[in-house]
Each structure stands twice: as C-alpha cells, then as structure tokens.
Amino acid sequence: MRWLPLILWGPGWWTLATPTIGAQSVDSLLVAGRHHVTAIAPAAALEAFNAILAIDSTHFEANWRASLALVDLGKGVPDQVRDARRDSLYALAERRARRAIATDSTRADGYFALANAVGKAVLTRGKREQMDRAGEVRTIALAALARDPTQDGAHHILGRWHLEIMRLPGIFRFMARRVLGQDLMGEASWEEGIRHLEAAVASRPDWIYHRLDLALAYADRGRFAEARAQTTILDTLPLGDVLDTLYRRQARDVAATLRDR
Prior knowledge:
By secondary structure, the protein is mainly α. The chain is 70% helix and 0% strand. The protein is globular and about 55 Å long.
C-alpha cells in the first residue's frame, strides 16, 4: 500500500502530511478531490478534502467524501486482521460522516457514508459485536434510501445485511434472534438481500463490488447461470475501487467453481 507512508502515525496520526496548497479555493479543491476519487487515489483525495475542512469544518461534501476516503485507506487491511491504525481510520470516518449529517440531514450521501464506516468497522469485530450493531447499520442505510431510493451503496449494505444474517450458522442465528429480536430477525431473507443487490447493480451497473456480491448471492441460492453471467460481466468493467483487483480475482474463483453447474 504505497499511500500509507503519507500518513503521520504520531499524535494526531490521522492527519495527512499536507504539502503547501497555496490559495486554492474550496471549489478547486473539490474538483481535485473528485478527480483523485475517480483515479482511485484515496490518500490524495483525503488530502484535498481535509484542506477544505481546514477552511470550513462543516462542509457537507468534504465530510462525507473524506469519510469514504478514510474507509478506502483502511480497506487495505483484511477485516480478520487486528490493526489499530485501520480501526482508527474507520472511527474517524464515522465522525466525518456524522458531521456531514449534522450539517445536512436531508441528503442521502451522509447517511451512506455513515453506514459504510460503521458497517466496515463492524466487520472487523467478533460475531457478537457484529450482531449488536447490525440493527444500527440497517437503520442508517434505510435512512439513506429514504432520502434517495436509488442510492446504490445503501442498497448494497442492506443486501449484505440480509444475506449475512441468512448465512449465519444455526447457533449464531439463535444468538442473533436474542440480540436483534425476533421481529428484526424475521425481516432478514434471501429474497430481500438479492433484491437490494439487484437494485445496487441497476443504479450503478459498472461497479464491480455490486456484481460480485450479487453473483455470490445467486450462487448461494442455486441460481448458477445468473451467477456465472455476473462474473462474466464483472471482468469487463473498469476499476473503480481500491479493492477491485482483488474482487476480480475472487470473481474468477467463483466462475471456476460454477463452470460445470
């Protein structure tokens, strides 16, 4: 991860080592930050958004985009690996998203960024803590969709919420019923998980991660032809996320297991 050395690991380590930016306007910094997002350069994007926040700490777009960039920086460390620096990135991402919502609670982007940050942080925890916060992640993602029913990231998060509950072993599903409550557990279903992932693909058809998780969901339900179709399409899509190279490899592995099914 070549971008990690850009981060100061001393006191206030989450602040990027920012070179002199000069008298750049907020608008020009936004343009630069969006460009770096498109170029899959989260450290450079975060630098631009942090520069805006140094001027205006309540800037809505800079906060939610900074939250996404912080999560992207943390995603290089696998969820199952203990890593305090990654965890701190996710914690800061949550704070940036909450600040965006405090600035403007009428728009979906802040809620998606918050669901993204909390959801990624939860995946690094044990099964019990994942269940403890599952309802929270669901509520935040639903708040995003209430503001924008086409928000693809929120659909993906909700799809994963349904599917991960359905994939739990029996003992964990029993524990989840006790933690989440029977009513909330009763709302989880394979069908709703797939519906949300299909909605995510419909809203953003060129996003590799949406199609990979949809392929896995189809495979779980024995819909092998549809799963193979997703992996075939996926390999033709442009890279857009820091983990897309990994997702492509995973899709090829899925396709290999489905070749004769």
